[in-house]
Structure formats: structure tokens, C-alpha cells
Amino acid sequence: MRFRDVEIRKLSDTMWEIPREGGMRVPGLIFASEAMMGDIVRDEAVRQVMNVAHLPGILKCSIGMPDIHWGYGFPIGGVAAMDAEEGVVSPGGVGYDINCGVRLLRSDLTVDVLRPKLRELVGALHREVPSGVGSTGFVRLTAADEEKVLVEGSRWAASRGYASAEDIACTESGGKLPDADPEAVSVIAKKRGRNQLGTLGSGNHFLEIDEVAEVFDEEAARAFGLFPGQAAVLIHSGSRGLGYQVCDDYLVTMADYMRRNAIDLPDRQLACAHIRSPEGNRYLSALAAAGNYAFANRQLLAHQARETFLRFLGMGPSDLGMRLVYDCGHNNAKFEVHEVAGAKRRVLVHRKGATRCFPAGSAEIPATYRHVGQPVLIPGEMGNASFVLAGSPEAMRVSFGSTCHGAGRRMSRTQARASVRGKSIVQEMEKRGVLVACASHKTLAEEIPEAYKDVSEVVAVVHDAGIARKVARLRPVAVVKG
Amino acid sequence: MRRCRYRLLAHTADLLLEARGTDLPGLFSSCVLALFSLLADRRTVRGAKVRTAEVTGDTAEEQLFFLLREALLMFSAHKFLARTARVTIKGKRVTLTVAGENYDSSRHLVDREIKAVTAHAMVVERSPWGYLARFVVDV
Q: Taking a C-beta distance cutoff of 8 angstroms, is the pair A407, A69 a contact?
């Protein structure tokens, strides 16, 4: 397989190596099938995997997941672990939507029970869960409240009655990232975040009602509370304008740091600072704060969804049984301990469009899931499928405990819009059995299923490569899009 | 209202814009108007209020990057939409003057969120028509 003048070496049916060249400090490693690699080499994602390999302190390899596509600086679907002492942190290695992620709520109901009133339920969710540009959340935050959100994350939501102890336990990092410092977040970023807590946003963010269509791993599905035919809710959102602004602010700080420290990299969007520098440290404090905002945001969205179900169905919480399965981010940089060259090392793992997937036995996993591995939530293209996976030991060996995050785009937004010109996406989706309520028809056209890779193929690669295992397939029956 | 000269080029995840101008200030104002055109139909925006922003940069790319960041902030932090834009350049200093109004959900359809203007693959170069710029916005 070739990418321009670079020969990419096939290591196995699911792994490809980009050899070191020029200023690359480590090789590149991409998880993909042969057919997917044919697509991947067509855009700039391979070049970006190579560029990331230039970063100071990068360990083992610069990694691309099967849902990899062209981003800015880092590819989307990229993983890079840096030595915690000598390495750098790069805001571009996390992305603008800091701690963007997914949460899955299960229920005791089957979709068949919901089906007769699904249209009205989707309408109610669309009204009650704020989405689209300019939307504001139901919580009015004072400046002091917002600072608490930045430090406490989902735990702030619990203190206001919007989260249960179980919600907190089933959120990655307990819904609160350590070392968050609101002082490291700019006034403008806080201003952008003040009214947006509890809003879905737009673009590829969504709330969908799913049916558990297929179970692959009975034991793990049982542990996660999933069964065939079950109704579940999947929410995809992030840290909203606050997170975007934190990234934007620190890209400028780090570009200046690089100039002063004569760090030369192939792309300005890879701007970085040494982890131990004041600039690096301050970014990590702001990153944790924005990450906490994202946890609280998804918690409030889940609260709104749960309340809407209860009101609409006229049920009590114990009859509905809508409990959080898990909440995991896919745009982050986290300190973790991994084995490198036979020794345990503290590293900073950047995951930009990639999900942490720790195996059974990890202390980081909620006790109830510790015997099966961390739940990993993979939203797919609208109208097709989403997946629940579980972490597996091989990920610790080859991908710094990371796996894919979604389907990954294959078509540009302009191509997607051109391909649907004159068609009603809402009607098209309905023919496929998916009800859609949306804030923007333009965004909806850009998010058609054909614009994405087939998530089943993406998941098959990570399953076959052993960096996560399939637990269940979800089929969307209704979607609220921002 | 001046039509701004820009087009969208293929980019898998985000939006890659190419704008033109006969000179550098004209190019920069085309880029600013392209950004606001992505947010909303500028024909629905009244030019009632004037706002200004000033940035400095060592290179044309740096100047454009900082200018577009300020322009986007006008909407994302202050909910201001621009109808027209004028740019002046004196050495490293670039001044942007826009006329527009505050976002009003009853009159303006803003159906796309732009997260940020990125420095990734940003290009400002001479072309047979004057100047050309390419930049990626994260959506």
C-alpha cells in the first residue's frame, strides 16, 4: 500500500506500519482492513499520523484508528502517548471539542412498547433537550456556579439533584477530572460556556433512541444491563463553546512557546508545550476544567432526557429503569501508566477521536463492570447502527488502552449536501425506520449516513485486532439532531 | 452589499474555504465575509451597528488567522452578525471594521456552528487575479 512516495507495510489483516522517515521520532501504526486503507490513503490522514510522530517525547508509535480521517494537526481517530517528563502536550491532539463523548442510558422498556407513541416522544425530546446554534440550557449559572462546574464536573450536577450516585460511578473518571483550575480558563471561554450547559450543540452531535438489535457477548451485555429489543438512549455532545475557546486560546499560547523554544514541527496546528512547562501545566488545568464542563453537560442532557421520558410516559423512575450504562469521552489527554519497552511509565495519552478502553480488572472501571472490561460506546452513522464494546487486554499492549470512536467521515460536507439535493432527508430516514427531529436541515444533509464509513466495518477491525470486543449492536429508531 | 468571492473546497471533516481579493485588504475582507456567510444569509443582516477589531501578525497568514479568530468571536461570544466588512493594513497591524447587528432568532437563521478557525494548511498567496487565501474552519 502506498501513500504518495511512502510505502506502508502490512503487519497483519488489521495493522499497517508507516516506517520512520525524516524527522519522525517513532513509526506510524494504523488499524484498518485492506479495503479501508484504500480509502484512508486518499486524504491527508496518513500524512497527519506521520506529522504527529515528530512531536517531542512521543512513545512507541503514532496511532491511527480505523475511523481515522483528515483533521487539523492531528488526524481525527489519532492516539499519541507522550513521556510525562520529557514529552509535550498539544491542544491539537485533543481537538476543539474537549472531552466530547458519548453516554448510553438503558431502560427496562422494549422499543415495541414505545413504537406507537414514538413520534410524539421524539417531538417532546426535541422540545425539552436544547439543540442547535444559539440554544441555551435550562440551568442559569452564576459565575461562581460555573467555576464549580469546572472543578466538580458531574459531581456539581449531583449536588443540584441532576445526577445520582450511580450516574457518577458510571462516568469515566467519576465525572470529575483532577487538577482542574478555573483560573486557567479565559474570561471569554467562561462567557461562552455560561448559558450553554445542558445543550446538545449542532454538527454531528445528537440524542438518539436505540433498540438493542443484537447481543454478541452475553456476559458483558448482562453486566451492562442490556438485552435484545430493549430501548436505550445514546447522547453525543461535548464541552460546547467553552471547550472550543480553551483549545483556541492555548493553540496561540503554544505557538508562542514553540517560537521561544525553537520547536520546529511540520504543521502549525500541532502547536505544543512541554508537559512540565508552565504553559503545558496551565493548559492541562484548563483541559481538565473544560473536560469537567463536558461531563456536566452530558449529565444535564441525560437528566432532561430522563425527565422527558418519565413525564411523557407517565411512569415512575423504577418502572422506566433508565440508568446510565456509561459515559466516555473521545477527545482528551490523560495521564496513565502504560508499559513501554518492558517498564511501567507514566505517560500522557492524547486521544483525538479515540476512546479509552481499559480491560477487565482495571481499577479505573466501575466495580460492577470490572469482570468484563470498560464499556466503550461507538456511535455510528445516523440510521444504521451504533455499538457497545468492552475493553480488552490487547489494547494495553498495542494502542495505549485506546480504540476507535465512531464511523469516521468519508465524504466532505459539500459532497454530502450535493448528493441529497432536492430530497427530504427526514422522509428518507423515515423510510429506513428512523424518525428524525432536527434544528437545522442544512446540518442534517451534511450528516447523511452515506457521508460516513460503515461503522460495522470499523468495529470489525478493532474487534479482530483485539483492541476492544463487540458486546451489542444498537439500531437507531429516532434521532434528535442539533 | 458586496458579494464576497469565496468557494468551498473538498475537505473530509471540516470546511476548507478559498477566498480571493484584488489586494491584501480586499482578500482579508473577503475571508471575513466568507466566514459570516457560512454562519447566516448576510442579506438578512442589517448593517445597523459598527464593530472594529485590531490584530497584529508577522506574516500575512498570521494576520489573517488572528483576524478571522476575532471575527468569529464577534458571533460566538457577542452574538454579532456582520453584513459588510472593510480591512486596512498598516505594517503588521490589521484593522477590521464590520457593519451588522446582533443575532435575532426571529430574523436570522444560523444553522451551522463554527467551532473555530484553524491555522491548519492556511495559505495566503499571490494569484493571477491578485491574492488568494485558503483556510479550514472546524464545524
A: no
- Tell me how far apart the alpha carbons of residues A446 and A388 are, in angstroms, rounded to a whole number: 25
Superfamily covering domain A2-481? tRNA-splicing ligase RtcB (3.90.1860.10)
Q: Give the amino acid at A187.
A: V
A219 to chain B, minimum CA–CA distance in Å? 37
By the CB < 8 Å criterion, does B86 face chain A? no
Q: Provide the ipTM.
A: 0.89
Does residue A330 have an active-site annotation? no
CA distances to A199, A367, B35, B46, B117 from A416, in Å:
25, 43, 20, 31, 22
- Domain map (residue ranges) of chain A: 2-481
Query: Model confidence over B69-124: pLDDT tens digits?
Result: 999 999 999 999 999 999 999 999 999 999 999 999 899 988 788 999 998 889 99
Task: State the Cα–Cα distance between residues A70 and A42, nearest whole angstrom.
Answer: 10
* Residues contacting A369, CB < 8 A, separation 6+: A223, A224, A326, A375, A390
pLDDT at residue A415, rounded to an integer? 84
Task: In whole angstroms, give the CA distance from residue B118 to residue A22.
Answer: 25
Q: How many pairs of residues across A and B have Cβ atoms under 8 Å apart? A: 93
Q: How far apart are CA A345 and CA A176, in angstroms?
A: 23
Backbone angles phi, psi at A216, to 5 degrees: -100, -30
> pLDDT by residue (tens digit) across A34-65?
999 999 998 889 999 999 999 999 999 999 99
Query: Which among A244, A248, A443 has CB closest to B112?
Result: A443
Domains in chain B with CATH codes: 22-138 (3.55.10.10)
